[in-house]
Design brief:
The complex is a heterodimer of chains A (533) and B (157).
Chain A lengths: L2 E8 L3 H12 L4 E4 L11 E2 L8 E2 L12 H5 L9 E2 L3 E5 L8 E4 L4 H9 L3 H16 L1 H8 L7 H13 L13 H8 L3 H13 L10 H11 L5 E2 L4 H14 L2 E3 L4 E7 L2 E7 L2 E11 L3 H9 L6 H9 L8 E8 L19 E4 L4 H12 L8 E4 L14 E8 L8 H22 L8 E7 L1 H8 L35 E3 L13 H14 L12
Parallel strand pairs in A: 1-2, 1-12, 2-9, 6-14, 12-18
Antiparallel strand pairs in A: 3-4, 5-8, 6-7, 10-11, 11-12, 13-16, 13-17, 14-15, 15-16
Helix pairs in contact in A: 1-10, 1-16, 3-4, 4-9, 7-8, 7-9, 8-13, 11-12
Chain B lengths: L1 E2 L3 H15 L9 E9 L12 E9 L2 E8 L10 E6 H8 L5 H6 L4 E3 L2 H6 L1 H13 L3 E2 L11 H6 L1
Parallel strand pairs in B: 1-7, 2-5
Antiparallel strand pairs in B: 2-3, 3-4, 5-6
Helix pairs in contact in B: 1-5
Classes of the chains: A alpha/beta (533), B alpha/beta (157).
């Protein structure tokens, strides 16, 4: 005899945990069924190279904690969520020892201004002004993030950006531009451009992707420099969310791969996991990716031809496909550029390998077209702020490479990449930070997109589980008919990053899915007047 | 009635702020150092064109602890916020003719510092701005806004 709950959530990624906590609090007996031995999905931290060196294999910086409903609603800080917010947030170093460009925390915008002004006073003025304006939009941007997408919202961004940036020459036509076009129009210093291009790509906004440039002005400028480090690693977020679930009374079943979603008379009534039926009287919600949910777990026979076509047409990668290098170090990097500004050696996120904007663009274009790019990376040395992430007098450095989608290379090719790419990057790193020699490295490892796909079911290694392009964003995510988190199978909901707003440690997919479910089942609304969402 | 930007005027602004803050239920905790940089724009008669007057204001637990006129930046002072703009803009705010939020939103007065924090302290910010804009009786010995034409017009206004 199987178990029966009111709600079954497939996948204990942070969105699934978020949804489960809210469902249980709203009175639905809820279970989360997880394939792996551990919860958290992309919020994982592992000692993957040597004992005592902790590495975040996917999610790195946390920019939404101040607006994330679950943090407050479930008291995650009381459950152990602790953060640090380094003063120097994002920087770029140069091999020839030029001054770095460093973007600081929002409360240190004078320092940001001074850093950019080494290259261009105009750029410094522009950057700080745009950043301040974007920060003032936070209530609106946060409300947009934590609400189901609205049809026509993309078009309404025109008046919004005009209202906020209009006197700076930004009009509605910016909605059609690519991030590169926007950055090139606003900023003249190649060093700043190189840094900003990269930050766009971090969020899956392809530099050449026309129609996504406004995301730079709003989303990127809002979040850039608001980054926090989760002490103990990003898995701490997952652990505290899990604790919140337990405290509410959610059941979590691990090592239980869901094999299919049970559909009876057009309604989702549960799942089969490891041969066991787990019934749901009201809700089945999937944190798995779109194709897996619809085509593999539900099955084409339960879907209309339109939904089958839509699911098949949904695209993964190439814009958010990562490789994560893990380096166990004796010393943290000391950059040549530090002679101008020592803060670059204590910068939370440091870009290495890009000597100018052309390097950044070439790197990204190579990765997107399936070519392993010349080694370069964004790097973190989290042990500078959190001694729990490395043994005494040692440091743990990780980073993000942008690499081709998993299917672009053969298994043998990926093996070769894992064997050689970190070494090649070290050669580059050494040019930027002379102490980054092989003697400074105890051991290292590279985690590649094909491994991410296998381990966390991030298709193609795309951590957003779906490309960010205008036809797959906002009310078009994952496709227009499914953008309300509801599916055409009654009782089946999407709550993972294939749904709006996409990948990232905001838990908005789970939170918004709860809003949809709450509406359908007349559950208490999570809306809090004070925050407005 | 104290003269605009004079010591007595700032003293009255400070008292006006503190009187209002005393009525607040949730006063923000912590200390902030705010610098106001008033740039002569050739229109305001209170700061000569090309010259600047800088004031440092210390806010502690919501209250204005002190203010002082300073010259330039002191590297030892860690600023929380910097407000910089043309003298006419500051004059108009002090005369209650311009909305300070609007002035900042449209970039006439440049703000540096954590805007998110300011947005979250809306009640406190409103009190500070109200005290600055309308909290004291101000004398305008060299004319008051709105100014018209060139600086000499302003003096006659």
């Amino acid at each position: 005899m199987g178990r029966t709950y009111d709600a079954v959530v497939i996948g204990a990624g942070h969105n699934g945990l978020c949804l489960a906590a809210y469902l249980q609090r709203a009175g639905l007996r809820t279970v989360v069924v997880e394939r792996r031995h551990e919860e958290g999905g992309g919020a994982n931290t592992e000692e993957s190279v040597l004992p005592g060196f902790r590495f975040n294999l996917h999610a790195q910086y946390m920019e939404f904690f101040d607006v994330m409903p679950m943090v407050r609603d479930f008291g995650l800080e009381d459950l152990g969520l602790r953060t640090a917010m380094p003063e120097a947030q994002a920087g770029i170093a140069f091999a020839d020892g030029r001054p770095p460009v460093i973007l600081h925390r929002p409360d240190l915008s004078d320092r940001t201004h001074a850093s950019i002004a080494r290259y261009s006073k105009t750029d410094a003025d522009t950057y700080v002004e745009f950043k301040q304006r974007a920060m003032m939009m936070e209530p609106q941007l946060a409300a947009g993030l934590y609400s189901p997408p609205v049809l026509g919202a993309a078009e309404s961004q025109g008046p919004l950006v005009e209202a906020v940036f209009g006197d700076l020459g930004v009009g509605a036509h910016f909605l059609m531009k690519s991030p590169k076009m926007v950055i090139d129009e606003l900023f003249e210093a190649p060093e700043l451009r190189a840094l900003l291009y990269r930050t766009c790509v971090e969020w899956g906004f392809p530099v050449d992707g026309q129609g996504t440039g406004v995301g730079f002005l709003t989303f990127i400028m809002w979040t850039l420099g608001n980054w926090k480090l989760a002490l103990g690693g990003t898995h701490t977020l997952a652990k505290t969310m899990m604790q919140a679930c337990y405290r509410e009374g959610v059941d979590l079943l691990e090592n239980m791969a869901v094999e299919r979603v049970l559909v009876e008379n057009g309604r989702a009534v549960g799942v089969v996991a490891r041969g066991e039926e787990i019934r749901a009287t009201k809700v089945v919600a999937s944190n798995a990716d779109l194709r897996q949910t619809l085509l593999d777990l539900v099955g084409e026979e339960e879907l209309s031809p339109l939904w089958v076509r839509r699911a098949r047409a949904y695209r993964y990668g190439p814009s958010h496909v990562l490789g994560t290098p893990c380096f166990c170090l004796y010393e943290a990097p000391v950059y040549k550029s530090a002679r101008w500004d020592a803060e670059i050696d204590r910068c939370f996120y440091t870009m290495v390998g890009f000597d100018g904007p052309d390097d950044t663009v070439e790197y990204i274009r190579d990765a997107y077209r399936g070519v392993v790019p010349k080694p370069a990376a964004g790097t973190w040395v989290n042990s500078l702020w959190d001694r729990s992430q490395a043994p005494p007098r040692r440091h743990a450095a990780t980073g993000w490479y942008f690499l081709p989608s998993a299917s672009e290379l053969s298994a043998a090719d990926w093996t070769e990449v894992r064997a050689t790419y970190n070494e090649r990057f070290l050669d580059v790193w050494h040019e930027f930070a002379p102490n980054m020699t092989r003697d400074n490295v105890l051991a290292h490892k590279l985690y590649t997109p094909d491994q991410m796909e296998r381990k966390n079911l991030m298709r193609e290694g795309d951590f957003s589980n779906g490309e960010f392009a205008p036809d797959q964003m906002g009310a078009n995510r994952p496709f227009p008919e499914a953008s309300s988190y509801r599916t055409e199978v009654d009782g089946l909901y999407l709550c993972g990053p294939s749904a709006y707003p996409g990948g990232g440690m905001h838990a908005a997919c789970g939170y918004n899915a709860f809003k949809a479910i709450a509406e359908d089942f007349s559950l208490p609304s999570p809306l809090v007047a004070e925050r407005g969402y | 009635m104290a003269e605009i930007y004079g010591e007595a005027w700032y003293g009255e602004v400070r008292d006006a702020i503190n009187t209002r803050v005393a009525t607040m239920r949730d006063v923000p905790e912590g200390a902030w150092m705010v610098k106001i940089e008033i740039v002569g724009d050739g229109v305001s008669p209170y700061v000569a064109e090309g010259e600047e007057r800088h004031f440092l204001v210390s806010i502690e637990n919501g209250h204005c602890a002190w203010y002082r006129e300073v010259e330039g930046d002191d590297p030892a002072v860690q600023l929380s916020y910097r407000f910089r703009g043309p003298a006419t803009a500051f004059d108009e705010i002090a005369a209650g003719l311009a909305d300070p939020i609007d002035v900042a939103l449209h970039g006439l007065v440049k703000v540096r510092g954590d805007m998110r924090f300011l947005m979250r302290q809306a009640e406190h910010v409103k009190i500070l701005l109200e005290a600055y804009a309308s909290g004291v009786e101000t004398s305008w010995p060299r004319g008051r806004p709105p100014y018209v034409g060139d600086p000499s017009d302003a003096v006659r206004a």
